[in-house]
């Protein structure tokens, strides 16, 4: 009986951890979409960012953070 209760507890912990990371994932996608729109990007670009982050969370975030700087400071334009 103890084994069944322990297994159920472990499954519950993994379930709640999975839900937590899923919510963080969705919040990250929404943040990136809003950030792209706030920076004056087109709705199509923002949607591409949203889809990329949804399907490739870590890689998509790294790529978005590298390309999001559009004010020209990186290239010496002010």
Distance between the termini: 69 Å
How many extended strands?
0
Structural class: mainly alpha
- Helix-strand topology string: HHH
Strand content: under 5%
Shape: elongated
Task: Determine the mean pLDDT.
Answer: 86
The largest sheet, given as strand count, sense and whether it forms a barrel, is: none
Low-pLDDT stretches are none
Q: Helix share of residues?
A: over 70%
What's the quaternary structure here? Answer: single chain
DSSP helix count?
3
Q: What would your notes on this structure say?
A:
With 78 residues, the protein is mainly α. It is 78% helix and 0% strand.
Key descriptive features of the protein:
78 residues, mainly alpha, elongated
Brief summary of the model shown:
The protein has helices spanning 2-38, 43-55, 57-67. The chain is mostly helical and 78 residues long. It is elongated.
